[in-house]
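Milestone M4 deliverable, item 7.
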Amino acid sequence: MTEWSLAEVHDVIAAATPDRAMLVGDDVRRSHAEVVDRTKGLAGFLVGQGLGVRRERQQLERWECGQARVAVVLRNRPAYVEAMYGCYRARAVPFNVNQQYTPDEIGSLLDLVGADAVVYQRSLGPHLAPALRGRPLVLIDVDDGSGVDPLEGGTELESAIEAGRGVELPQPSGDDLYLVCTGGTTGAPKAVMWRQADIFVAGMSGGEDATAESIAAGLCAEPQVWFAAPPLMHAAAQWTTFSGLHQGGTVLLHDDGGRGFDAADLLALAERERAFLITIVGDAYARPLIDELRRGSYDLSSLQRLATGGAMTSAEHKAAFVDLLPWVTVVDGYGASETGGMAYGVTSRSYTTRGHAPLAGGAVLASDRSRFLAPGDDEVGWIARRGRVPLGYLDDRTATEATFPVVEGERLAVPGDRGRLAADGSIELLGRDSMVVNTGGEKVFVEEVEQALLRHPAVEDALVVGRPSERFGQEVVAVVQLRPGREVDGAELREFCASSLARFKAPRAVAFTERIARHPSGKADYRWARSVAEHAVDVNLRRPPT
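Output delivered:
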């Protein structure tokens, strides 16, 4: 069995379809052959700078990295994917940086990962510069047409590619790392370390027993356009990109210039490029897209799949997509940076699944982690992945052994999500254990309450957290953004939630805000929500009419 590196997989695809469009965006269209040539040049430049493998995998503990690390500070543009492949060909490891972090936060992430180089686009240079002071890093800048001068001491991407042509490159290995930094939704970011051979199967549509022949044979006859709408510094967008490429698709990328998500821009681009698949992140993307589809007129006849993941998408919004685009299938994926793709649900005009069907390796571990649950076991357990799982968290033995424990000789990924295994084998997702509110001895999963709030016609967005309570230990608090022109008070929202949930789950306090803070990926910013919840006003605890 071949343990594939991502660069080797790309070589197979490029040999089979050299002239097929691979990357579209930023006013450029690049074929597979062009990208191979360009990324070999970039790899040669990195090798010339002494960036590559330093210690092989077998010499390392599973939380250690023996490769040079390259920060990628780019928006969604072809250069992002080229930077990743260039690093892989040099046997260096790229990692994602959230460009909306403060300079101090970026500096902390560079230190956490141990960056040796940075690839950035010039418009982000002034924001990045304070984070680079005192750090002797190799700099590669991408001219994005912004007119902003590059940082001193760097090399422009095109010049780096030219300088590296003809340099002898190392042979990549399936043991080489794929590194992804978590978004810090509930705490500080962590760097998740995957072997490339494992993430190829677990998150990028690779076959378990793939051969060069099977990879080439599995490419679609005609290229389908895959549109990753979320930022590429989000793992799910990277997995969409690589999955599309590994199936012979063309990847569409859109640099929003830092303006943020715009539903009209996304739909117009999908119409123009005849997108086959679009990926989004939960209700934060779904709501404005549905509103825009109802307002405007778009020819989306080419669109066959709308994939959502990374955050909860309500049943109401999935049904709305199918009502507006009846030929489209909505695929609701579940996974994490620590697990890859784990399970999925389907909503279409003719068929809707109950729960999420597990993918290969998806399982539910008993609450005491002593056994795997069988379908129908009436127990809330830990969602886990078996088989192809990460090595661990970079330079963090304690967190590695906690999240990726070895049970009966088998390394598992147990990222902290709770769930049940239904009688039909589907997984019922309950939410992240760290976001459970323990109120009066009862456990409340915040995503369940958020979904109830979002069903209220006046609510645009909502997050739910816990805060200390003398009476209950913790109490459920909602942070709510109302739709323009709508009014509702906290008492009404509590009663609305209590009409569909157990009463102890309904918010006891509500804070109203002009806008819910979310990360650029669309994921919730719960640290922000907790700070707002400290000042939430207790609702009038009216009893429902008898």
